[in-house]
Amino acid sequence: xxxxxxxxxxxxxxxxxVRFSHSxxxxxxxxxxxxxxxxxxxxxxxxxxxxxxxVAARTAAMSFNRLVDRDIDGRNPRTKxxxxxxxxxxxxSVVALVLVSSALFIAVAFWINPLCGKLSPAVLAVLLFYSWxxxxxxxxxxxLGLSLGLAPLGAWLAVRGTIDAQAQIPLxxxxxxxxWVAGFDLIYACQxxxxxxxxxxxxxxxxxxxxxxxxxxxxxxxxTVISLxxxxxxxxxxxxxxxxxxxxxLVLVFEHSIVRADDLSRVNMAFFTLNGWIGVGLFVxxxxxxxx
Length: 292
What we know:
By secondary structure, the chain is mainly α. The protein is 79% helix and 0% strand. The longest helix is centred in the N-terminal third of the chain and has 25 residues, at 44-68.
């Protein structure tokens, strides 16, 4: 294999490790936070720093998650082919990736403004802490939601540089992200309910059963739509964002209609494809609403 081919393979392994494509979940909401704070398109330089911080934070969180779960992933038939259990990447290289991306995130946060810099270690602690939660609480889904929900808050602070009276708007958006992520993570976790029980791991599907977990996911997504509607109201947005919320609600209804306790064959479609479109659609709707 040529040096170029080996390099491409290595890059592919790292991209797969951190699931770079999954950035589509948090990034559109970070952009919504930035657009709301600026009342439109943010300063390009600030926007570039927000994007870099978001990528660094996600890389640190996902790499750390794969690192601490490497043994569990190796025992799970669904995940044993991941980069660390399969040996495609070494443990030391992933440790280095966690350290470099964490340092980059904190450095960029300080570069953006003093408030973001001061808060960045606490944010990073939440992102990394999630990886341990399934070892002791079935509320791990909510902690994952909180981790991604910090994205619009961070972007808002990056643009504003202060906590002001309008900060309740990104807080509502963060709540929408928290419940949205917790809901679709519940659906995804249903695949591993039996494995988690056998390993002594905690999740709502493992603790209460798949059927009840799917009902909790439905309630979480109802709260998502309510929270987004409150963002629409408090931010005084118009019909375009309202239409985007309505479309997101319809997609969520469809998502729940294709996943049943006795048929989880379309979980990946619900988890990846549909939720990706929700985030992008909401951001496009907000950007257009603020521009017109």
